[in-house]
Amino acid sequence: MRSNSFLCLLFGLTASLPVAAQFCASPEKPQLGQVVSFTYTPPSTSSLKDSIIEGRYIRYGSPAVMHISRSTAIKLVRQGNDYVGQLPPAQKDVTGTVLLVKNAQSPQKVDLYPVLMYDATGQVVPNAIGGQASIFTRTHFLYDVGSRPDPNQVVGLYERELRQHPDLRPLYWSDYLAAVIKQRKPGYGPKVKASIEAYLASRTPPTAAEIAAGAQLYESMGDFPKARALRERQKTADPAGSLAQKDRSMSIRNETDWNRKKTAYQAFLKEFPNSIHLPALTVMMTDGYFKNNDLKGLLAFLDQPQAIQTDPLMLNSMANLLAEERRSLPEAQQLAQRGINVLKAQPKPQDFKGNWEIEKQSRHRLLMATYARTLAQQGKNDEAYVAYQEAMNPDFVEDSDPMTNERYFLCALRTNHAADTRPYIEEAIQVERATTALKNALRNWYAKQPGQNEAKADAYLADLEADIRADQRDELSKRLINEPAPAFSMTDLKGRTISSSALRGKVVVLDFWATWCGPCVASFPAMQQAQSKFQNDPNVRFLFVNTREGGPLQRVHTFMEKNPYPFVVPLDDQQRVSRAYKVQGIPTKVVIDTNGRVRYRHVGYSGDPESTVNELALVVEMLKEGK
């Protein structure tokens, strides 16, 4: 009986052609719904006992049902020198299965065996041969196991299918010609081009998809003029198709007149509500409304259904910028609220990798923090405090934003919730996620509590910072240097002589700078804070040495008049001092200890005033202690 008959192949459809391998399947001509049993005999039995044989299979059908082609592991059971297994029954749309067998000890060798489906008359069903080729050309089945298809074999499969079922040419014509191109036999170019033209001419008329396939074939051969001609023909054949939509979307992007851009976008939205180009256009329009300062129009735009396609983090940035500039605060509040609403309804982005629910919570907290900030700036402190409560994450204080923590506590002070927020703020200080302003606000609040005073508040804050400052001191001590400090004598802007001999016994901070140096000037507010920490200490001096100015002295005078920092500015117009102190670039901070030794040198400015002040102050304190 047929159900007990076996089909045995000596080498089947194999990538490695192991002539001694054998594959037997039963029934010989399986139909849909039948279990297929098989026996696989490896090509050599000499080391069989040490081998690990692995198997996978993949179903296939016509090119229209490639979704059924998923690689699946199959269980192989050893019986003597053979391995046996079963393919589960094939269901609707399946025209065949390809079984892959490999030895884990020789992963580069792969054996492939086709199991074709038959109809009730015992004939191979349509797409049983061509479908195999689709597996090799449209999936990563072979590549995933470190192999690759044989172009000659693929072309042969397509040709066999088309000989047996010429009516299936519309399904396979472009895949077949693409395989011929990869085969690269002599004279393939003219043959393929003639076939493209003949096929398209035979269609009355060709579909837009067929024209697109022809254009892609021309492109793969480098014939771009013919490819472009077909692309234009494709637009005519399908004026609402993907190419037409792409052109329309590009024209909207390139439109420079804002009113015309808005009109063109609305027309595109009405005509192509499901276009793949719409999300990117919506994000562009959101940005456009903001850049054109049309906040009322932006909020109305975000009330439309397509707003779900915009970026909530973009809305957060817009609201934050308005809050930073303290303008249009009601609109900033509404932008943050719209961002929250969009995020709630937004599905996981296709390009996002990771846990979307966790990421979504993180983005929600970010938006809530901005929302709370805009409320507080409008004096809606009670609402702001509730929003801040939702924004803060007590489980991950070490990842929090120091400025948000500062705003949170200041809002808590205004709403009489300081005691409630105290544990969070204490932890923020202990994990170095607190600004100087936040520390001072907590200290001042603590000093006013029953039984406390200024001295106890200082001790309280010092205790909170003890561990982190100890770690900072240990880390910083490893970076301290010990070099002789060259003697210097310079004249400052007021005509006074500043000499190293007069500063002996003091800790001296030298900040080398120039008026044209952006990072130098950007660091001045932080340097002013650092200097103010020691303004009442006669044993600490800050000198802001102007060097490498390269221009008239009046430029330095003018700069200091426009920016009245309380700095002593010695002039190193010949760069003698900067060279002596090994200044490679500016700004450079150098700290000299009480014994006249250079102990610290830092080039550049990080842009973080908080860390700059803290590190410099810590260096000065350590050197005062004789470290």
Record keyword descriptors for this entry:
Immunoglobulin-like, Serine Threonine Protein Phosphatase 5, Tetratricopeptide repeat, 4 domains, 8-stranded mixed sheet, disordered N terminus, 5-stranded antiparallel sheet, Redoxin domain-containing protein, 627 residues, cytochrome c-type biogenesis, 48% helix, Thioredoxin_domain, alpha+beta
Walkthrough of the structure:
The strands form three sheets. The chain has an eight-stranded mixed β-sheet. Strands 1-2-3-7-6 form a five-stranded antiparallel β-sheet, with no helix packed on it. It has helices at residues 130-138, 151-164, 169-183, 188-202, 208-220, 224-237, 242-254, 258-271, 278-291, 295-302, 312-325, 329-345, 356-377, 381-391, 402-414, 418-430, 436-447, 454-479, 518-522, 524-533, 553-562, 576-580, 609-624; strands spanning 7-9, 22-26, 36-41, 53-60, 72-74, 77-79, 82-87, 96-103, 110-116, 483-484, 489-492, 497-499, 507-513, 540-547, 570-572, 588-592, 597-603. The model is unreliable at 1-6 and 9-19 (pLDDT under 50). α5 packs antiparallel against α6 and α17 runs antiparallel to α18. A hairpin with a 2-residue loop joins β6 and β7 (82-87). It folds into four domains: 2-122, Sandwich (Immunoglobulin-like); 170-238, no CATH class; 259-461, Tetratricopeptide repeat domain (Serine Threonine Protein Phosphatase 5, Tetratricopeptide repeat), CATH 1.25.40.10; 483-624, Glutaredoxin, CATH 3.40.30. By secondary structure, it is an alpha+beta fold. The protein is built from 23 helices and 17 strands. The relative contact order is 0.04. The longest helix is centred in the C-terminal third of the chain and has 26 residues, at 454-479. 48% of the residues lie in helices and 14% in strands.
